Amino acid sequence: MLQCTAVAGTPFVEALVALADMEGGPDHPQEALARDFLLCELGEHDESTEHAAHLCAAEGRDDRDLWFLWAGSSTHRVYRFATLPLCLATLHDFDRGSIRRCPLFFGHRPRTHSFQVTDPLGALDTDDTDAS
Ligand SMILES: [Zn+2]
Ligand SMILES: [Zn+2]
Q1: Quick one: pLDDT at residue 128?
Q2: Could you tell me the superkingdom of the organism this chain comes from (predicted)?
Q3: Which of 8, 9, 16, 24 could cross-link with 58 by S-S, CB 3.0 to 4.6 Å?
Q4: pLDDT tens per residue, range 2-15
């Protein structure tokens, strides 16, 4: 499955407020928010599902990460901030002897975990290695 390609401009003021309110949030919200645009990190989905971009990781594992969720585009955009627990899915890569965690939030839709999603831009970079 490919990654969703939706992009949203960062609503700085609201994002700063959300970061400041966050439990286990960053000491310097302004630095945590050094991006003009936020990319949806979910797998391709339809309009009934909100786009979601990870804004900031909480300090403690028990704290919830801050996410930016939106639907629609440009002037019709509706968005909100939410602190959500982590997805519990892990992928055991026996070839590499590693364990990958899905960095998305618990109960994300589509249910496709991040390690099953191909970043269309990242895939371009690896074309050379795929050919060998
Ligand atoms: Zn999306
Ligand atoms: Zn997941």
Answers
A1: 45
A2: Bacteria
A3: 24
A4: 999 999 999 999 99
Alpha helices in the chain (DSSP H): 12-21, 29-32, 120-125, 127-131
d(CA 54, CA 122): 18
- Determine contact, residues 104/91, Cβ cutoff 8 Å: no
SS (H, E, C) 18-42: HHHHCCCCCCCHHHHCCCCEEECCC
What is the Å distance from ligand 2's center to 34 Cα?
A: 25
Half-sphere exposure (CA, 13 Å, Cβ side) for 9?
8
CA of 65 to the centre of ligand 1 (A): 18
Neighbours of 7 (CB within 10 A): 13
**Which pairing describes strands 7-9 and 51-56: parallel, antiparallel, or unpaired?**
unpaired
Tokens standing for residue 75: 């002037």
Per-residue tokens: 125: 């970079």
